[in-house]
Amino acid sequence: MAECLFCKIAAGEIPAEKVKEADDWIAFRDISPQAPTHILIIPREHIATLNDIEVGKEALLGKLFLAAKQIAGEEGIAESGYRAVVNCNADAGQAVFHIHMHLLGGREMGWPPG
Ligand code: AMP
Ligand code: ZN
Q1: Which one, 72, 103, 104, 106, has least CB within 10 Å?
Q2: What angle do CA 33, 49, 89 make, to 5 degrees?
Q3: What structural domains and CATH numbers belong to the chain?
């Protein structure tokens, strides 16, 4: 999508601190980290929100979870713990409308989230 920030990051048109990538996803550090480790994992394909996922995308979405697990290990937070969060729409605070998984760790977190 031409005007999407994360599509532009995925295409390399806007710089980001890339952590890892594969054919169909890319992971980069959040520009405003909310934890010592705060990484965003996004599919290269533009999907706006969790409401827009369709049957057939299970494997793609599953790969985001596998990426989160792998990156958590590499960041040294797999054992201490971490969160994998997808915000959907206004009440959840979604600000960028290209689906993304937040990988947060490196500190204790409260529950429920604010
Ligand atoms: P959400 O509120 O779930 O839509 O999260 C969007 C996230 O994108 C926020 O945590 C922002 O800090 C992050 N963000 C916005 N612009 C950039 C950027 N250019 N590079 C990296 N992260 C970004
Ligand atoms: Zn996009």
Answers
A1: 106
A2: 70
A3: 5-105 (3.30.428.10)
Q: How far apart are CA 47 and CA 1, in angstroms?
A: 9
Q: Which of 38, 46, 98, 100 is catalytic?
A: 100
**SS3 category, 5:** helix
Q: Whose CA is nearest to atom 16 of ligand 1?
A: 31
DSSP 58: H
Q: How far apart are CA 111 and CA 70, in angstroms?
A: 24
The closest alpha carbon to 66, from 31, 35, 22, belongs to 22
Active site residue 100: yes
One-letter amino acid at 22 equals A
Give per-residue pLDDT as tens, 35-71.
999 999 999 999 999 999 999 999 999 999 999 999 9
Q: Which residue has the tokens 């599919």?
A: 43
